[in-house]
Amino acid sequence: MSPYRNDDIVTRPSHARTTIQWPVQLAPTASIDEPLRAGGPWIVALNGVPKARVSADVANVLKVLDGKKEPAQVAHHLGSPWTAEDVMGVARQLVHTGVFDVTANQAETRRVQFRAPLTVQVTLFNPGPLLNFFRPTVAAMARPGFIAAAAVLLVGGIIGAFIAGPNVWRVLATPLPLEAYLYVATAMFASTLLHELGHGMALVYFGGTARRIGIMLFYLAPAFFCDVTDGWRLSSPKQRVLVALAGPFVHLGLGSIALVFQCFVPATSLKDAAILYGIICYAIAVLNLLPFIKLDGYVALMSAVDIPHLRRKSIAALSDVVSSRFLGSRINTGSQRLLTWFGLASFVSGIAFMVIGFQRFAPIVLQLGYAGHLVVLVVFGLLLVLALKGIIQFFHSASKRGSPTWRRIGFLLLGTAVAAGLLIVIPIRSVVVAGYTYINGELKIVTPIESTAQAIVPGDRVTLKSQGMVVHEELGQATIGTEPPSNSIAPVETIVPVTFPGTNVPVRAYPGRLEGSVSLPVSGRAEVTSQREMRLWEWLWDAASNSPLWPGNFGQATKVSTGGQQ
User: Fold this and answer.
1) Three-state SS letters, 151-193
2) Percent helix, strand, coil in the chain (nearest 5)?
3) Which of 330, 336, 356, 541 is the most buried (most CB within 10 A)?
4) Is 270 helix (H, G, I), strand (E, B) or coil?
5) Is the peptide bond preceding residue 521 cis, with omega within 30 degrees of 0?
6) pLDDT of 388 above 80
7) pTM for this model (two decimals)
8) pLDDT digit string (tens) for 414-451?
């Protein structure tokens, strides 16, 4: 009986398989890492980055590959029951990883790396020496007494949030002094770094190695990262789960400290900053536990069920089901029900994250004029290329699995027709985000004097909201009056959620007519919804033709609008 089975190798995501010519040897940058504990998996790594988990038998095969022996010679060296076909099967399973000399890929050594679908990583340094220095501290923190103290701290943080009471809503929904945001920004920078170091320290505590730490753009949002893929060498799924959850635990602890601290601070910008920081830390911890995006909760789930690349495999299972039922591909999908549902949730969540990220990213960058429009165009083009690549791969895979040509063409035409129908049917009303002032019963809707928001016209609907950094509480409704706009000045907090007492900025003021009897703060946020209802294709055409990138528009003022609230 052969010692080699297909499940002896669990690989990381691959792009395309590469043929291999014998004799073969490992690449100079490839390594075979022993298990951290008895019975654990062996790891095949390239440039220190794990590429596959293999059994001890497969590891023995790889050690014999010296670039001189043919498969039969390797099998003879290993002895019975190995055969030449077994040896070639091992090589075929691993060739796409690039660990062999003939296909070695040096891209992993680059400081800047791209990870599909929309992540760019920049390595800063090797955290190994730093984490090893703190290993005794982590060992002390793993004792029952410290764990009990941490639980008490978490309870204290929750109690602190209740004690803060109405201040929590005020901090989230109203402008704060600049120094409060500076406190929060500094603390968030430090806590995000500590979050990633938390992963690394947990891994080092269990005997692993954190290989690199850096910064990245994750779905268009900046963040730190710590490479803890060495955790797959850990034999215990429980240990891998704890490595994944160490980051959220750090944010829970820091948030609890902040919320307890604010209980003893007088009403100052420091107290507001502590409340805001504590709530944000709790929110980050909860968000990180979502299992459908490649965040800590996903890694913890993947480790608990011991299925590497769970998300990739589940999306592949979803693709198989769709391909089988709609394209007639010959695929057995009977045992993939749970994977399929997880794949559907992961697929939808990934799209939602990208859409939300783009919606928040684009309006801010567009304010930079020509350069901002160029950046948005590049990001939009990248998203479009990724989508087209996925569609092409889907149909190519269906073709290889026996899908009839007529079904693939019909499905493609149906999808095109649905997309065209949505462009024609979906209604869009552009929304301009502005500010308002309400002084002596007179309401003015204001935009920065250099703003290109020329879409505001008499009769447009206005939703008046609080100007908070996190929450925009609805305060009332109004309409744009018929009088022409005028140049004026307004408090800076009408434009941004930051208070600068006595500081005004030049604005263009539109008359507003308040609806009903409401009590309004003197300034806040205004969202102006256009009366004109466009179809989605009209809105896209309007946005493109008014961009400074459009031929003939360079150097001209353009109007910026969004199809929804920011």
Assistant:
1) HHHHHHHHHHHHHHCHHHHHHHHCCEEHHHHHHHHHHHHHHHH
2) 50, 20, 30
3) 336
4) helix
5) no
6) yes
7) 0.78
8) 999 999 999 999 998 888 889 999 999 899 999 887 65
